[in-house]
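Subject: design request, 351 residues
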């Protein structure tokens, strides 16, 4: 959210996240033209079409439209794990730190957090060592949950295959939090279905880089998705005439996947230009897709950063290390605005 000092209507370039995207005119038209029905009865044709498209895209039997990625991940964990069982997950992955620990509160599923390596992935030995023996004193380990991308870093196909192999070998199900999965797919030139071939379930967010206003889809085998449908109902996620939202998501899948490459190009350009500024450093090796992490030198005071940039039409989440996210609402001029504003800030506040 914006701080109380920042006026949202003055912002012309918002780098806080790719969740801030607004529907394009073509997407709004698709929403206007959408056929709708009651999805709880299963007769919303647009929702049904979206679910079929998503399942086919990711090579799975079935899919379920969800109001949010948080609910999609939670439903997946609860579909794979019973009460008192355990999910292995990266210690700073969304499921563990950004989703209000719904797995424990609502699913009674324990999360066992694992260290995440510098590439954003999990190490096979760490996974194997964390699996519990068959002991009444311990929860039974049922699920391994991975994330792609992680802080914009791509987890490549070889890693995805290795995680699937270790999960199979250890008798675990494998879930992928694919909040920005299509960024990884585009960056690697992979076939989406092949990329997640070894996953038992995948949550694909539609409202980040893909630019739909609301929602995620959970895909997997028919049995898992059927269980997830019951869980979605329990969690309050049953939707009625959701076709207007599904139509936006269909438009995103049809028109906004390939264009993610534009966001990646702009992020790479931004990283290079910020590295040239005094007082700011960027590890360009971490810039795989649409995220740039720019760190201010310790001698630069940041108290006025958010307002300083907002006065120049730029929105960020203020921090010593800025996470800057490119998306379809940002063009080359927005990159110029951010670089110019940060150059002015470091020049004025250094020391």
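Subject: RE: design request

Done. Sequence follows.
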């Amino acid at each position: 959210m914006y701080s109380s000092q920042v006026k949202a209507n003055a912002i012309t370039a918002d780098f806080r996240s790719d969740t801030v995207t607004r529907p394009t005119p073509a997407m709004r038209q698709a929403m206007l033209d959408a056929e709708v029905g009651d999805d709880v009865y299963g007769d919303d044709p647009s929702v049904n079409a979206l679910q079929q498209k998503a399942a086919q895209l990711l090579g799975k039997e079935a899919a379920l439209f969800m109001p949010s990625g948080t609910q999609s991940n939670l439903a997946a964990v609860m579909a794979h794990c019973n009460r008192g069982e355990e999910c292995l997950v990266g210690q700073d992955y969304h499921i563990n730190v950004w989703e209000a620990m719904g797995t424990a509160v609502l699913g009674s599923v324990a999360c066992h957090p694992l260290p995440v390596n510098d590439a954003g992935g999990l190490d096979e030995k760490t996974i194997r060592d964390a699996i519990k023996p068959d002991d009444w004193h311990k929860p039974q380990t049922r699920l391994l949950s991975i994330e792609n991308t992680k802080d914009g870093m791509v987890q490549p196909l070889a890693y995805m295959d290795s995680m699937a192999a270790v999960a199979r070998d250890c008798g675990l199900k494998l879930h992928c939090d694919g909040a920005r999965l299509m960024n990884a797919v585009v960056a690697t030139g992979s076939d989406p279905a092949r990329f997640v071939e070894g996953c038992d379930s995948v949550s694909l967010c539609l409202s980040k880089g893909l630019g739909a206003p609301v929602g995620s889809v959970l895909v997997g085998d028919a049995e898992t998705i059927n269980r997830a449908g019951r869980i979605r109902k329990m969690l309050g996620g049953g939707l009625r005439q959701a076709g207007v939202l599904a139509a936006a998501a269909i438009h995103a899948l049809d028109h906004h996947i390939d264009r993610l490459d534009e966001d990646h190009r702009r992020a790479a350009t931004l990283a290079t230009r910020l590295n040239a500024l005094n007082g700011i450093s960027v590890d360009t090796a971490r810039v795989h897709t649409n995220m740039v992490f720019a760190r201010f030198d310790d001698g630069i005071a940041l108290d006025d950063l958010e307002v300083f940039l907002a006065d120049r039409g730029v929105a960020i989440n203020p921090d010593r290390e800025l996470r800057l996210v490119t998306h379809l609402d940002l063009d080359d001029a927005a990159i110029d605005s951010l670089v110019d504003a940060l150059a002015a800030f470091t020049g004025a506040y250094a020391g």
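The chain has 14 helices and twelve strands.
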